[in-house]
């Protein structure tokens, strides 16, 4: 394998962001998810990031620095019954992969972290945003925006985040901090 930095200089940051989304057709409850759907989701959402990390790690180790960010999901931390079993499993697997990379290569200057976005909306769909706010128990006043995630990734990849390694940064407006079905929203 040719080092990935041979033609253009060394890679210092890898963001494993490509994925199949949680709403892939057929990815439901475990007994309802066909094995070929499971394999497709795991291949894109877990095997792909593993291969990306394997490709850049030699250059990062040789340089003595680098940052790998795994784009996980709050679906790795909390489940919805009967929904996105393969997706949730792959995103949880990314957290395990991230921690082993951080533990193994951190002593060689390579950091690896995960960002776990919550609900991120693109566009200005006021009705969906209001429905989200109500479903969050009132704790979260707005869904996340792509910029919320981009800024987190930029921070954890930068020198400003150089003391962060092996961590999951949950970016969800506090949604996973409570149980919406049991919590009462508060304006206090």
Automatic annotation (TrEMBL):
Superkingdom assignment: Bacteria
Signal peptide boundaries: none
Any one Pfam family match given in the protein's UniProt record, by short name: adh_short_C2
The entry's keywords: Oxidoreductase
Keyword Protease attributed: no
Protein family: Belongs to the short-chain dehydrogenases/reductases (SDR) family.
Name the record gives this protein: SDR family oxidoreductase
Source organism of the structure: Streptomyces labedae
């Amino acid at each position: 394998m040719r080092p990935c930095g041979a033609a253009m200089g060394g890679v210092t940051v890898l963001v494993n962001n490509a994925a199949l989304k949680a709403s892939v057709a057929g990815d439901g409850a475990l007994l309802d998810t066909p094995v070929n759907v499971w394999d497709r989701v795991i291949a894109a959402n877990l095997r792909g990031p593993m291969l990306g990390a394997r490709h850049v790690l030699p250059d990062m180790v040789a340089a003595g620095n680098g940052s790998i960010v795994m784009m996980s999901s709050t679906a790795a931390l909390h489940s919805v019954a009967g929904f996105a079993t393969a997706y949730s499993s792959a995103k949880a697997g990314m957290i395990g992969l991230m921690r082993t990379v951080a533990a193994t290569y951190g002593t060689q200057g390579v950091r690896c972290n995960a960002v776990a976005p919550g609900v991120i909306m693109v566009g200005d769909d006021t009705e969906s945003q209001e429905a989200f706010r109500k479903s969050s128990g009132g704790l979260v006043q707005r869904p996340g925006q792509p910029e919320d995630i981009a800024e987190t990734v930029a921070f954890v990849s930068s020198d400003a985040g150089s003391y962060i390694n092996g961590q999951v940064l949950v970016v969800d407006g506090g949604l996973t901090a409570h149980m919406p079905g049991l919590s009462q929203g508060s304006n206090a």
